Structure formats: structure tokens, C-alpha cells
Amino acid sequence: MGQEIHDSHFEAGDFALFQQRLDEETALLGEWLADGGLRIDQPLIGCELEAWLVDDAGRPAAVNERVLDRLGDPLVVPELASFNVELNNQPRALEPGVFDAMQAEMAGRWQACQAAAMQDNARLLMIGILPTVRQQDLCLDNMSMLQRYRALNEQVLRLRQGRPIRIDIAGREHLRREHGDVMLEAATTSFQLHYMVDPRQAARAFNLSKMLAAPLVAMAANSPYLFGHDLWDETRIPLFEQAVSVGGSSYSQRVTFGIRYAEQSIFECFEANRARYPVLLPRMMDEPPEQLAHLRLHNGTVWRWVRPLVGFSADGSPHIRIEQRVLPAGPTVQDGIANAAFWYGAMTELLAGPPGEMEARLPFSVARANFYAAARDGLDAQVQWCGQAGEMAALCLNRLLPLAERGLQRLGLADEEIGRWLGMLQQRVARRATGAGWQRSWVARHGADFTGLVCDYAERQQSGLPIHQWPAG
Fold it and tell me: Which of 83, 346, 398, 438 could form a disulfide with 404 if both were Cys (CB 3.0 to 4.6 A apart)?
């Protein structure tokens, strides 16, 4: 959940004062990390699900303010567009039963949101990019009533010196568009995973998360269509990267896979934020430096696909979380939790290995190439893993799902729980039954009737069955 601000207009002096506070707080975080001042008792995990509000015709329904007021749940909050919302789960210990508990909590919150939306003749839909969204829907009139979003738009356009945002995505078809504001970002909805880790392992966790981004996005792909064009299996990736590009420097990409692994400490990421990314939201806050308020606000405007976060636990102690941002929303809550089980299991097993081993066996350039190949081609992508080249689907079935299984066993999960969640992924991959594949199969049968596609997709989502059990459209 992002930090709200109280003004969207800033003077030159605001940027200088904010930078000074950012410098101080970044230095303080560096001291904490260097002297072991950050500790956790046990790993905690959590998730955020972004969703669309749609009407009976499957079109965006800009009613989130009324729905959220009616719902009254502090863990359900607005997103950039007034037809999007974000559902959050409580943090949980990474222990037996956790995935069943995550699924039950998110499913319950989802049903409560659905009931609130129905009173506005709307419904929730979890899908990476809504196939019926039009460019004209992504306008400032449909921006949520939060100052931070309006300020973000103003500052991105300021750094672009008023130049329009250009979208150029070459996939199965080629889409080129220009847009006058940041609302293109609202076309992308995700399922974000959080992992609170021991700060001494945070750099390794950051690096390993980058390596696992490719199989995650391939197995979960659910965003093939944008503005009537068939593009990447996970078109969210290039769309989000281009939607808030500020231009003007090598660090113009505020949404990025990065340029290298962390080498010694996770502090390297926060120092890069301070030194290399221009401040977008220079809101001064009356908080002591120990709250890292300015650092956290600035960090929230650099959307790495794998992002380190600083947070504060219930007892007020600071911690480091790794946020995995590559997953799209949907097709169902069960599918999302299965993706989570894979990531946490694989992370656990890899973190148990020798430090530096995976970085040596899977260089950053390979991890990056794998990620974009997987986003473009999904399970058909040709990738490399520790010196071996092959198809992503085979890599997942033969090496990575067994890796995640060993990690979940290491955590003490029962075979039945492991089999239930990873079994969904095994079936999904074996059948090539991703959300992107289902949508394309529907269009192959019915043509480019995107209203019909969304309505049929919504009906199957409502069944609660995971994607590999959906009947063909």
C-alpha cells in the first residue's frame, strides 16, 4: 500500500530539502545494515492483489470510491484508476498451513469486495490486462482521488518536459501509441508477494528473486491483449516499463529489471535510489529520521520488478522485505497462491545453498534475458539455467518445481499441502494452461469479441477452479 501525500504541487526548494532528508535517512539505513541493527525473529510473508471493477458488459467501472466506502476494510485500498482496487493480506509466518491460510483470507476478502461491488452493479475481476479496456478509459477523469497519483503524473511529465508517453510493443502483433499522462499504468494489475528476510541474507534473496522472475512470469502469464492487439504472453511487463518512463538519462526507466545483482549488501539498491533516481514526490514529513519516511516514499517511486522495501513491524522495529512484482493478477485466488508456494519454496531452497553459488552459475545478463523471453513467449520461451539451454516448460517441470518442493519440505510442510499447491502448477505447465493461453484459445474459437471473452473469463473465474481445470471457451 502506497503512502498518501497532501499536495501535488512542489517548489524547487522542496526538492532540495527532500534530497537532504533522503541523504540522511539513507546513511542511517546504511549504518543499521552495517552494524547489524536490523533483526527478525522469523521470516514473514504477505501478498497484495490488484483487481479490476467491471460492469455487466465487462468494461471498466469507475466506482472504487463508493465500493471502498461501503466495504470499510482498511486492507482494501484504491489503486491508480477509479476502476481498480488493491486487496492486502495480513503478514504470516512461513510455516506449515500458511498457503491454505493465505488462500482462505484472500478468498474471504474477495467475496466481501464482490458483494460491495454488486451494489453498484459492478463486479471484481482479476486479470493482468483487461482485454476490453480502451485507451480513452485511461484518462485523468478516471484517476483515483489521491494526491500522490496526481503528483506522480505531474512530476513524470515534468521530467519528460511535456513529451507524450510512447508505447511501442512488438509481440505477435505490433502496437504503437502515444498517451498524455501516466494512466497507461492503470491497465496493469498484479499479484505482489512480500518476503521479510534476515537483512544478512537480503542481497542474496534479491538476486535469487531476479533469477526466479522468469519461471514465475512464464507459469503465471495472463496478459496477452492490449487495445485489441495480441502482444506478449505477459504484456504487463513492457507496458508498465514504458508507461512511467521519465526519459533523459540511463535511469529513465523507473520500472526496471535492474542492471546487476547486489554484490555485498541490499544497501546498494537504496544507495542507487538516492544517487541515481530523481525525486518525484518531494513531500516533507514531520517524522524523525529513524522512521525513514522520506527514504520509503522515494523507494516507492522506483518500481523494480524485484524491489527491496524497508518496513516497520508491529513492535516498531525496522525490517527488510523483498517484493516480487512480476506476477499478474488471476486467473483465480488459488492460482495466485500456487504461484506464491512456488516462489517461497524455491527461495527457501536456494537460500539454503552456498552464498554466491547461483550468481556464479546464472549471471545477471542471463537472468535478465530469461525474464524478457519468458514475458514475451511464456512457457515456450527458450532460456538458459546454470549452463543448460532449453524450453521454459521443461525447465519448470524437471528442475524448478522439484526445487520448490524441496524448499517447502525444508519448511516442514506436509506432502499433502505441498502436492495440492505445487500440483496445480505442475498441471498448468504440463497442459500449457496459462491464463494467456486460455484467452488466446478463446479468441481463436470466437474471434476478437473481447466483451464475450471477458464475460466468459469472469464466469470461469467465479467457479473458483484453477486455470488448468477451466473448460475451453
Answer: 346
CA distance 135 to 186: 11
Instruction: Name the grid cell of 260.
Output: 546487476
Strands (E), 138-209: 165-170, 174-179, 191-197
β partners of residue 192: 48
Best CA proximity match to 167, nearest among 232, 60, 240: 240
Contacts of 80 (CB under 8 A, 6+ apart): 143, 144, 149, 182, 183, 185, 186
User: What are the phi and psi torsion angles at 180 (to 5°)?
Assistant: -95, 0
Distance of CA 333 to the CA centre of its chain: 15
Place of cell 553459488: 357
Let me know if 161 is exposed, middle or buried by CB neighbors in 10 A (0-12, 13-18, 19+): exposed
pTM over 0.90: yes
pLDDT by residue (tens digit) across 286-344? 999 999 999 999 999 999 999 999 999 888 889 999 999 999 999 999 999 999 999 99
Which cell is 80 given?
491508480
- Given a contact cutoff of 8 angstroms between Cβ atoms, the answer to whether 218 and 342 are in contact is no
Task: Count CA within 13 A, CB hemisphere, residue 199.
Answer: 22
**In the structure grid, which three cell numbers stand for residue 291, read together?**
522512521
Enter the CATH code of domain 12-465.
3.30.590.20
Specify the amino acid at residue 448.
A
pLDDT digits over 352-361, tens only? 999 999 999 9
- Partners of residue 244 on adjacent β-strands: none
Per-residue DSSP letter, 129: S
CA 235 to chain centre: 13
CA distance 389 to 382: 7
Domain boundaries, the chain: 12-465
> Can you tell me the distance from the alpha carbon of 89 to that of 307, in angstroms, rounded to the nearest whole number?
19
Rounded distance between C-alpha atoms, residue 186 and residue 143, angstroms: 9
